[in-house]
Amino acid sequence: MRSVLAGVALWTSAAAVWAQPEPLPDFSTCMDMAVADFEQDLSRLRARPEDAQDFDIGDVRGVDFCATVGIVRCDRSEEPLTCQVALTVEQDALKVTVLALLPDPETVTGEGFAQLLYPQVWALAHGTSAGPDCAGQEPAMHTWCEAREANNRLRNTVLAWQVARYLGVAEPAIEAGWAKPPPPVRPRARPAGLKP
Fold first, then answer.
1. In whole angstroms, what separates CA 163 from the centre of its chain?
2. Which of 8, 102, 109, 138 is the most buried (most CB within 10 A)?
3. pLDDT tens, position by position, 125-159
């Protein structure tokens, strides 16, 4: 049930993005925010009693959301297809960068669920598609599909990084150089007609 509600919340957020007239963050800035959210969750988890620190914070919905924001930005641009091709390249480049920083599972020791999970997500992040997932589509749909598939690959890699962070064998993204501190959160405007 929780995953269904989370999916509804994600797509509700994505729908709100479509209607939003304000400038949207670029993909890189959006990823900075997603990484910062994970680091906050990790800090909260580490503040729990030691026997309650199970890896239950693996969540790459933020990475998926950033792709949605990126595609919306492209759709609003003067050259949507060229923009989506660039988004695909940017996501694949980030995947390669993060993947290169992940330790080989054979060098990671420990016990528990996360220890068992890490080799699996590491292998998934290093995997390849069984075939050309976007073949046979018209140009606009093919370009969109390639951007989404690049995001799938990036999500697998970010999940592996999250498990590695939990296990203490990967640096924070900012220290590793693949993310920057997120911009400060802007306060929400007071609805018209409300008194201070």
1. 14
2. 102
3. 998 777 788 988 899 999 999 999 999 999 999 99
Based on the number of CB atoms within 10 Å of its own CB, is 178 exposed (0-12), middle (13-18) or buried (19 or more)?
Answer: buried
Report, in angstroms and rounded to the nearest whole number, the Rg of the chain calculated over CA atoms.
18
- Closest Cα to residue 60, out of 189, 193, 172, 163? 163
Q: Which residues of the chain have pLDDT under 70?
A: 1-22, 50-55, 186-188, 193-196
CA-CA distances (angstroms) from residue 105 to 16, 21, 42, 132, 178? Answer: 40, 45, 21, 28, 21
Taking the CA atoms of 190, 193, 194 and 196 in sequence, report the sign of the dihedral they define: positive
Alpha-carbon gap, residue 131 to 139, rounded angstroms? 18
Q: What is the pTM of this model?
A: 0.80
